[in-house]
Amino acid sequence: MSAGRDMKGDRSVENEAAFEKFKSCAVEVLQVPAEKITLDARFSDDLEADSLEVVELVMALEEAFDITVEETELEGVETIGQAFELVTSKI
Question: Catalytic residue positions?
Answer without folding.
Answer: 50
